[in-house]
Amino acid sequence: MKRMINSPRMFKALLLAGLLAGPMLAFNAMAQSRQDVHWSPLDIFIDAGSNQFAYWDDANNWQGGIVPVVYNTNVANTFYNAAFDSASVYCVVTNDAQVGQLMAGFGGGGTLVITNGAHFQAGFSFGGIWTGIGFVAGPGTLIVGPGSDFTCASHLWVGQGTANQGTVIINGGTLHIPNGQLGVSWNGIGGTNYIYITNGGTLYMSQWSSQTLGAPGSGPTNIGIMDIGANSQVIITNNQLGFMSVLTNNHQLIAFDGLGTISAVYNPSANVTVLTGLAPAGPDTPVFSLQPSNEIVGLGGTATLTAAASPATGYQWLFNSAPLADGGGISGSHTATLTVSNFNAAETGIYSVVATNANPASQNDRNYASSQGVSVSADSFNLYPVITINGVNGNTYVVQYTTSLTPPVTWTPLATNTVGTLPAYVVDTATPRSIQRFYRVIQTLP
Q1: Per-residue confidence at 383, pLDDT binned at 50, 70, 90?
Q2: Rg over CA atoms, the chain
Q3: If you average pLDDT over residues 101-119, what whole number do you get?
Q4: Exposed e or buried b per residue across 159-197, where buried means at least 16 C-beta atoms within 10 angstroms of its C-beta
C-alpha cells in the first residue's frame, strides 16, 4: 500500500530536520531463538519528490510481520536481528526501539533514520553485539536527527567490507558507544566511509584506536573521514590527543567539509578528550586590529592588557585557558581592556582574549576569534640604575636623564644632591629592567 504525502518539502529535508513523526503500531514478539528479520516494507509513503519511506514500528514492513525486538537481554538467543537489504525505501524510527542486532547493509542497502526524539538501542542482546552500517554486505546509512539518540551496546562498524560504503550522520542528535570501538573503514578496505557530526550533534566514545578512521597504511582511497560541523562535538574517554595530529594532517579528521579546523582539547578533571570544529573565517569572524602584549608587573602593581577586534560584540579574557570573571582585583574580564590590580605571583601566566560576534549573518562563518597568548610575569625584585656622584665636598650637582641621544637631545632633571665627604648615590626607581635611559651629572654654579 502506498500513500501520497502532499508536502512541498523534499523527503531528505524532512529527514534531516527531524520532522517526520506519527503514532505507529506497537508490535511485541517473543523470540525463541536468534533470527534475522529482513526489512520488507509494504506500507510505503511517498513524498512530493517521489522518495519512499516506511516506519519501523509497522509490522507490515518486516518479513514475516515481525518487528525486530529484544526479548530478554540476559538470555542468549532471545532476540531478532534487523537486516536491511533494500536501499530504495528508508526506514524511519519515531518511537523508542531496541533490537538485538542492526545490520544496515545485509545483501543490499539500507538507510535508518532516527527522528521525533526517539531513543534507539542496538546490539542489546546477551553479551552485547556489534552494529553494522554499510556492513556486512551492502551500503548503509544511519541518520540521527535532532533530539534523538542512538546507543550501541558494542562496536559500531561503518563500511567494513569491500565496496560497502557506510555513512553515519549525527544531525543534531546523539550517538553513544559506551563499551566498544568505532570503526569507520576499520579494516582499511572498501573505499572511503564517513561519519558526520553537525547541527549540534554529539558523539560519545569510550575508546579511540589507531584504526578508528581506517587501518594505518591502507592508502588514501580506503579511509574513514570524520567531519565535525556547527555547534557539534566528539567526547572521548581518556587522553586521546596523540592520535589527532596524524588524522588532521591526513584530512581524515576535518571540520565544516574541510574548510574549517579541528580543535582537540584534553580535560584532565573530566578525563575526556573533546573534539570540536572551528568554522572557517568569513565576513562575520572578528579580526584583531590590536593584540595584547607581554607585560612585566611589580608585585602589588597593576597589569593592564588591551585588545581590539571587529566585528565584535563582546570579549572574554582567559588566564591559562580558563575564563576570567570580575572580582578579587580583576576588572574588565568581558571588555577589550583587562585590569589586574594588586598583582601577585599566582597571577603570572598566559593571558588571551576571545572576541565574539553575537550577530553573525551566516552559521558557516566562525563568529569568534582568539588573540595571541601573552605572558604577564611578576617582579619578585626590581633592578634599578644607580648614579654615583664622586664630587667635591660641599658642591651641589644635578642628575639629568634622557631617553635618546639622537639630536636634539632633551635632558630632564632627576635629582639634586650636595656631596659630602662620601660619594652621593641617586637611584632611579622609575626605570625597572626594560626602560632605557641615559644619564649625566652637572655641577650647579654657586
Answers
A1: low
A2: 34
A3: 88
A4: bbbeebbbbbbbbbbbbbbeebbbbbbbbbbbbbbbbbb
Half-sphere exposure of 249 (CA within 13 A, CB side): 5
Share the mean pLDDT of the chain: 84
pLDDT digits (tens, 9 = 90+) for 184-211: 999 877 789 999 999 999 999 999 999 9
Distance separating alpha carbons of residues 280 and 265, to the nearest angstrom: 19
Exposed e or buried b for every residue in 292-324, given b needs 16+ CB within 10 A? beebbbeeebebebebbbebbeebbbbbeeeeb
How many Cα atoms sit within 13 Å of 270 on the Cβ side? 10
Cα Dmax for the chain: 120
Phi first, then psi: give them for residue 201, nearest 5 degrees. -75, 160
Instruction: Region of 290 please: left (phi>0), alpha (psi -120 to 50) or beta.
Output: beta
Q: How far apart are CA 201 and CA 114, in angstroms?
A: 13
From 146, 241, 136, 227, select the one nearest 189 (Cα to Cα).
136
Peptide bond preceding 139 in cis form (omega within 30 of 0): no
SS3 call for 91:
strand
> CB–CB of 108/86 below 8 Å?
yes
Distance CA 123, CA 129 (A): 4
- Give the angle 302-306-308 at the CA atoms, nearest 5°: 170
In one letter, which amino acid is 282? G
> CB atoms < 10 A from the CB of 270, how many?
10
Beta strands 349-356; 368-370: pairing state: antiparallel
Strands 202-205 and 174-177: parallel
Output the nine-digit C-alpha cell for 386: 644607580
- b/e burial code for range 410-434 (CB count within 10 A of at least 16 → b): eeeebbebebeeeebebebeebbee
The pLDDT confidence band at residue 173, using thresholds 50, 70 and 90, is very high
Can you tell me which residue has the cell 654657586? 446
Q: What is the enclosing helix (H) or strand (E) of 246?
A: helix 241-249
Q: Quick one: DSSP state of residue 201?
A: -
Contact 206, 273 (CB under 8 A): no
**Lowest mean pLDDT, pick from 94-108, 117-131, 411-425, 429-443:** 429-443
Amino acid letter at 343? F
DSSP 64: G
Statement: residue 2 has pLDDT above 60: no
- In whole angstroms, what is the distance from residue 103 CA to residue 140 CA? 8
Question: How remote is the C-alpha of 76 from its chain's centroid?
Answer: 40
